[in-house]
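Two proteins, back to back. First:
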Amino acid sequence: MAKAADIGSKRLINLAPDAWVQWVTQRPEVVAKEILGSEFQWISRETDVLVKAYSATHGDFLVLNELQLRYTTHMPLRMRAYAALAQERYRLPTYPVLINILPPPSTLTIVSSYEQEFFGLRAIQDYRVINLWEIDAEIVFQQPLPSLLPFVPILRGGGEVSVVQRALQALRADAQLNQLESLLAFFASFVLDTPLVQQIMRWDMAVLRESPWYQEIEQRGIQLGLQQGVQRQLIRVLRRRFGEIPQEVEARLEGESVEQLENLMDSAIAVSSLDEFVQILST
């Protein structure tokens, strides 16, 4: 059974699939043919949406859409793995796109490729990165891009009350879109006070919290909060034991699960040097 995030991502892209693939590829001649199955043996990816697309120049190809709430250091490897699996299954060239919804911590650098060299052999996977907070909100209305309407508040220039109201009007004008009001309200709460969001949306926040969208993102937010708390504690232990910690070591801790960080905490207490800890971190 598909998870809520998967259903949501597919629903968003299905609102205007041609406009979506043209936007992520930056090629106006591309059209969407169908959304394909994105579940593979050995791997479960609830935020991926595979679209079979076509252009007169390149023929049929896949657009791999990965919608990620926040970027983590594991994303390059995941993009490499999933792009390869998709291409192997459907025997079509693959155009991978990573869409980051919210900014990551300032210590984390977003990269647009995976690279590894081992025993003289190289593995490389490029992918396009779209950071929603860098996208001009006006583009959503001009193109138009209905799939991005719920995200307007967190787009560049989208946090103004008048812009949020404009997005709300667009959602309410289309019966297919008005079900996304709860998602718009959620992201509006990132940039506007909750009472103001309630006033604009005429929305009961208790109803909002019952939305599958809200529950999915809230769960991710709670998990992220736990992860960040354990990470801060781990860095504090390392600093107390070994002094200043290189930024690249802190960056490598981003995206580790709570369980992994707790195991690393045990290692941080047991090792005799920072180099020894870094070796464990690299395994």
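And the second protein:
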Amino acid sequence: MDEQPEPAQDTSAEAGGPLDRRAELSEFLRTRRARLKPEDVGLPDFGRHRRVPGLRREELAQLAGVSVAYYTRLEQGNGRNVSAEVLDAIARALRLTDAEHAHLTHLAKPKQHKKKQAAPTQQVRGALRQLLDTMDGIPAYVVGRRSDILVWNRMAAAVFGDWALLPPQERNWARMTFLKPEYRELFVEWEQKATDIVSYLRMDAGCHPDDPRLSALVGELSVKSEEFRRLWATHDVKEKSHGVKRMQHPLVGRLELSFETFRLIDDQEQSLITYHAEPGSPSAEALRLLASWGTDATRAGTQSTTPQA
């Protein structure tokens, strides 16, 4: 018999308050189960009307080799004493990606942190700052927790706007993507950029549900952006990786740049992001022009894409 459909829960944190880990676990499992159909996992579908989307709890429990009661407790947010083997089985049954599997583990078996211990301000090593400065012609920056932009080089400022003109708390990809119209114009595939940013924040929230700054950011964006609320409710998660970004730059027009993400070994919560164009392409010529204009390009690009502070 189908279980009754459950109303979607709003797991957005109030400004500064912790995210509800149990609600996060419940909604994550429910949304992953909802996206699977019986035929996707080799189960018969007898064509009966289903009152919930996707697999039923008993079907998922059967695939994972656990009792329905056990899985139901887990989906209700009770991950206490769940074993890694059971989580692995559920992850396989739900066909989770590696990032989703890691997120499930963070939610169900959170690491113990000292309560009321404020997260230290992230610091970037001096040698890494010097490396950014030497990457002439390569837009590059370091991003940290909560999608905060920590440091960047001259070419990154020429492409994305001079973040030095923004207050430190506004140097954040999520805040800029959803709250600044100029970034909607900059990214040709803005919806994909927005989806990726929210997926990164979800991963961060799973690792640090008690981070007040992250909770405040989620709360602010949930209030100010309907699009953020919609994407946040999907509970999708993703790790930073590599790909292509297409942009419409106010000075040089269309840019198609490949990006690579390098997670730092000594600080797994910092990543170096670099952008490059295919040699001989129009985008490579556009980057060369931006580099030759130097600070003039940065200033002009800032006037077009980033409001003055």
